[in-house]
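Example (one chain per record):
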Amino acid sequence: MVNDKHDEARQSADPIVFADFDGTITQLDVTDVILAQLAHPSWQEVEQAWTRGSIGSRECLERQIALVDTSAEELDALVDAVPIDPSFAPFYRFTRERGIPLYVLSEGFDYVIVRILKRAGVNGPVRNGIHMFSSALRLEGRRLIPSFPHSAPPCEHGCATCKAALIRRLGKGKHPVIFVGDGLSDRFAVDEADVVFAKRQLLAYCREHGKACHPFDTFAEVEQAIALLIGPSQSGSALSHHSGSALSQGERVDRDGAFTSRRGPGEGSVAARGRIRQARPKLLNGNE
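Predicted structure:
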């Protein structure tokens, strides 16, 4: 028998989902891959300044992207080697079928996001830009030129894309507001959401600061949790951002990776990093 109170909570749910892209939808941070393979090594010094809090992510990206030397073919080869969470496309279809708005909020670049989503077979408002808010990128010669249409100048943190402001604006009147992320650049979005799904560095941040969240590895787990939230016999109480312990014993932070910048140590699988390392030599040998 369905609990009446839980059934009422389910029926009143009008969720909205916001998801980070790099390291959340993809298995690696694409910007870090580009910098590691195509930029002058001094990009890491800029990264350290960002990590210390000396500069915001917008200034960080502006300075780092200026260090990249690449052709369109070389850039595309790297982007095409970045693996995506295989359960994201089914999750996207799930949100469309259930009428749940899904927005991608990213400090990464539109060119990269659209290319990867196309490869994954994701169409609709996320890929065409209506439900995607990110930094922008164009190629001039061998230089990458970034711009930041959603940096929100009043942003006190100097973000390349002000995720907190976007969530406040787009999530108005929705409940629960759900955020899915993985990195330190997502930390300012946490306080704007009712429900947070976190992994890697964002999970570690939530643990350190006592912020409630739900650990996840793939979007299949996020889909299952949201299905319970809006399903025929479950309410959203179990997912409350403000209830229960921030972390369970099963939560973990992956620390086996090579990239240590915006996503911190331990981002992505060994196999995925191997494919990235192989992408540039193949291109230079004349293979795409």
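Caption: Residues 1-9, 233-238, 240-270, 280-288 have pLDDT under 50 and may be disordered.
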